[in-house]
Amino acid sequence: MNPWLNISVINVKSTNNKELFMLLQKVNNDSDTLIVPIASLVIEHDSKSGLFIESLDTTGLFEPRHLQTFYVQAFIVFVVSLSNPEYLETFSHPKSELVFLKSSPTKKILTPKKLLKYWQNVFHMIYPNVMVHSNYYKTPVLFNSIDQFHFFDDDPKSKTEKVNIDDFLLILLQRRDFVKGGIIITVRNACLTAQNMVNYFVPNRKRILELSTYFGAFYTIENEIYDFLSRIRKEDYSTPVTASESIKKNVDIEHLLCAEIPLLREEELERIRDDPVVTLQPRKKK
Question: Chief subcellular site (predicted)?
């Protein structure tokens, strides 16, 4: 087997504070070469060096399939590293087919608890100070004042009354979207509970961080993000062939640059699992 994989990244930029990144894999199919979408990530910036991950979706078409979770995690780390934010947050909520509406039949959804753990692991790869707040699982609060939180357009905190921090966090848990959801936050610098996070173990952290350094080639498209997404959502991503044909309708693949990334060897990994495809529910504006 070839010890290298070929990947590319599309970056869709618009005039507002949001960006879309899409991970693509170049694969050989008989006599043809396919450009297959693997994952999409929508992020939102604020004016205070904060970053919010609005949505994540995958197709389940990565080859080899059982290694997809490692490369998607490396992709997330790469995208975040481009901004090097002081503050990073996401809202974890299991939901299928957010972008790739007709995706692989092997696509499965993580349970709320497993999805929270997934994001906690990813965030710990970026910074050691991570906070999880949900009805399923909680870690120590990172801050002692509500003013230390950042608030984003699609962030459930933005729809919650700003009272003292203890009441604020309690009110969040009463929201309907927290029945299966939760927020995960990490910060770059030391904070109130930094000393509690030092020994958190993330399987394969070193290998995933190394993979993230290979995501150097990407193609930028100037387009309104939700217009681009509306076109992407109309296509078929059930097989590598149909997914490749679908992406060609919306992206000029002749301008794509591919980077070589090493193929992980199973004997190098601390744990191999055929993880379900991960999706993150974007919140609708009210």
Answer: nucleus
- Say if CB 208 and CB 70 are below 8 A apart: yes
**Measured distance CA(57)–CA(52) in Å, rounded:** 15
3-class state of residue 198 by DSSP: coil
Terminal-residue alpha carbon distance, the chain: 50
Could you count the other beta carbons within 10 Å of the beta carbon of residue 4?
12
Residue (of 14, 17, 22) closest to 250 by Cα position: 22
- Evaluated on CA atoms 272, 97, 243, 16, the torsion sign reads negative
Q: What is the DSSP annotation of 199-239?
A: T---TTHHHHHHHHTT---EEEEES-HHHHHHHHTTSEESS
pLDDT (tens digit per residue) in 31-42:
789 999 999 999
Beta strands in 75-171 (DSSP E): 87-92, 102-103, 129-134
Distance CA 156, CA 182 (A): 9
For residue 190, the tally of other CB atoms under 10 A from its CB is 10
- Lowest-confidence pick of 15-19, 139-143, 195-199, 247-251: 195-199
Range list of β-strands (E), the chain: 4-13, 18-29, 32-45, 50-58, 87-92, 102-103, 129-134, 182-187, 218-222, 236-237, 259-262
Altogether, the residues listed in the chain come to a count of 286
Dihedral angle of Cα 134, 140, 142, 146, to the nearest 10 degrees = 60
Task: Give the rounded distance of the alpha carbon of 132 from its chain centre.
Answer: 16
Distance CA 243, CA 221 (A): 19
Q: Are strands 129-134 and 259-262 parallel, antiparallel or unpaired?
A: unpaired
Query: Is residue 199 predicted with pLDDT exceeding 60?
Result: yes
d(CA 234, CA 11): 19
